[in-house]
């Protein structure tokens, strides 16, 4: 049987419609937004509100509040500071939200950790840790460093990777960009500051959350909807309540490196299609033993 011919004018109309739709998508979601991490994201059936557990001291409170306001500029979600109550040293995760902690975690080599538990491709909990062993030092005890690292670690728990992993080039104006000078005032990385999310970060979140899922964790629904929200389905393998530790030996395999060749992302499989991803920002003088297998101060 001969296949029916497709009229030329109809083909042109179809192509024009496809082209117009493509341009409309590009106008809303710029093609340059490309720093999601894998495909993981918080599942949602509607508005998404991520609680940030406040387990930080007074030196960090303002920076946590600022980061929550900043990430809430994303059209796809809100981040809301909630009461904590966790031991900040252990910083154990809580199912359905992100715990934010600061403590003197020791000479581990890292300034901050963003740790994300996912099950079936969906985030189920996370932690953001700030290491006061380094933030008590003159080099890092600045508002710019505190704001930048706080913003970055929370950004990882929302589904973002880094925009750039070279600490020596010009700042992009994003906390998801590595820098030796997040303030942009010392002449080493240009004049933009890397203390908050930029439009590129917000565009990427729009791409990550541009669809609806079939389920949503009750704790991630806005307060006004919690009375009608369904209870979350438990993950295939329940994430460990004690969390993942502060040293390389607990993070699993390295899957990405920075411009200097230092591993910056690790994945540990927990079984049952559940894993934890650890994002690391290293101190400038971190030594190789900090990221080599088996290291554990």
UniProtKB/TrEMBL annotation:
It comes from the Bacteria. The keyword Metal-binding does not apply. One of its GO terms (molecular function) is metallopeptidase activity. Keywords: Signal. The keyword Signal applies. Residues 214-228 have a biased composition (Polar residues). Residues 214-255 are annotated as: Disordered. Residues 1-33 form the signal peptide. Residues 229-240 have a biased composition (Low complexity). This is Peptidase M10 metallopeptidase domain-containing protein. It comes from Croceibacterium soli.
């Amino acid at each position: 049987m001969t296949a029916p011919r497709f009229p030329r004018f109809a083909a042109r109309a179809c192509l024009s419609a496809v082209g117009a739709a493509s341009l409309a998508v590009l106008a809303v979601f710029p093609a340059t937004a490309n720093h999601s991490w894998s495909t993981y994201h918080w599942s949602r059936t509607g508005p998404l509100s991520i609680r940030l557990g406040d387990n930080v001291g007074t030196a960090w409170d303002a920076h946590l509040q600022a980061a929550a306001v900043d990430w809430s500029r994303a059209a796809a979600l809100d981040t809301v500071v909630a009461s904590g109550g966790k031991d900040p040293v252990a910083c154990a995760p809580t199912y359905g939200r992100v715990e934010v902690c600061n403590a003197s975690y020791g000479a581990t080599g890292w300034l901050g950790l963003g740790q994300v538990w996912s099950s079936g491709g969906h985030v189920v909990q996370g932690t953001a840790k700030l290491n006061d062993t380094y933030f008590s030092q003159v080099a890092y005890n600045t508002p710019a460093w505190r704001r930048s690292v706080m913003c970055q670690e929370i950004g990882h728990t929302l589904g973002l990777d880094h925009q750039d992993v070279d600490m020596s080039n010009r700042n992009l104006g994003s906390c998801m960009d590595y820098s030796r000078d997040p303030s942009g005032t010392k002449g080493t990385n240009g004049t933009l500051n890397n203390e908050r999310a930029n439009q590129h970060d917000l565009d990427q979140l729009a791409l990550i959350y541009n669809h609806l899922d079939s389920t949503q964790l009750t704790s991630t629904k806005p307060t006004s909807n919690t009375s009608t929200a369904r209870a979350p389905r438990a993950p295939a393998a329940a994430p460990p309540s004690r969390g993942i530790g502060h040293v390389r030996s607990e993070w699993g395999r390295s899957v990405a490196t920075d411009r200097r060749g230092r591993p910056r992302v690790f994945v540990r499989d927990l079984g049952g299609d559940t894993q934890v991803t650890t994002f690391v920002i290293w101190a400038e003088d971190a030594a190789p033993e900090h990221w080599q297998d088996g290291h554990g101060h």
